[in-house]
Write a structure and sequence with these properties.
By secondary structure, the protein is α+β, with helices and mostly antiparallel strands. The protein contains seven helices and 13 strands. This is FBA domain-containing protein.
Length: 254
């Protein structure tokens, strides 16, 4: 493959690579044919993404519009606030608090738990009646404009971690809804309640789901999870949850 520097004037490419993406697309493309040819080339946007600090994979899944990709506020950032209970219950809506309600606890052994790539010190614990909490994500407030969501429809990636208490059965629930401007449900992921037996070892499990090709009109994402214990014991012997994440991304990118 011929390198971009061999196709176009090196200095011009370097200058354009330093220009903000929106200005490149809306203004610079109309300057002349040569500028338009450079700006509309995939090779230029690979260079531009690298200059902006994106770590690109060896191979890129096609089709991928680099001009649109680089306009993302930030790839793969977690849109959920306080997912690991560092700030107690801040940013979470307590939809149901059965039994003794929700409780934030520290990880016991080891003191720091590695879940995926994150170090976790705290988790949310449920009680002997149903406990559910949620967040409503406004995509536009997060920087993802309506035309971006409708035209590119980036994958919406959901991940969550849950664990029962050792020697105590538990139930875990998850509900994710893609909502319109009027909060109408456009798509939903609501798997069956996961039931964990009392002879478990308290191990942590990850659940994940990706929304693909969900159509136009998505403006909000509703994230809800929780559960309870199976033994109906007083206290907080129900399922534990932490390290939740909700992000946007493209297949073929890290």
């Amino acid at each position: 493959m011929v390198h971009i520097d061999e196709l176009y004037n090196y200095d011009l490419v370097e200058i354009l690579a330093a220009v903000p993406p929106r200005f490149l697309i809306l203004q610079c493309r109309s300057v002349c044919t040569k500028w338009k040819e450079i700006i509309e080339s995939s090779a230029f946007w690979v260079l531009k993404c690298q200059r902006m600090g994106y770590v690109l994979p060896q191979r890129i899944a096609r089709p991928l519009d680099w001009r649109s990709f680089v306009c993302l506020p930030k790839m793969n950032r977690n849109l959920l606030s306080n997912p690991r209970a560092r700030k107690g219950f801040d940013y979470w809506s307590m939809d149901e608090a059965g039994g003794n309600g929700w409780k934030v606890e520290f990880v016991n052994e080891p003191k720091i738990l590695m879940l995926g790539e994150n170090r976790v010190r705290k988790y949310f614990a449920t009680s002997h009646r149903q406990c559910l909490k949620s967040q409503l994500i406004d995509l536009r407030k997060m920087g993802y404009r309506s035309h971006f969501m409708d035209f590119l429809q980036p994958d919406i990636i959901v991940k969550d971690w849950y664990a029962p208490r050792p020697t105590a059965g538990a139930r875990y629930k998850l509900r994710i809804q893609l909502l319109s401007e009027d909060k109408e449900v456009l798509r939903e992921y609501c798997p069956r309640t996961i039931v964990m037996r009392s002879d478990n070892k308290g191990q942590w499990h990850q659940i994940s789901y990706i929304f693909h090709n969900y159509g136009e009109g998505v403006r909000y994402v509703f994230f809800q999870h929780g559960g309870q214990d199976e033994m109906l014991w007083g206290g907080w012997y129900g399922v534990r949850v932490t390290n939740s994440s909700l992000s946007l991304g493209f297949r073929g990118l890290p």
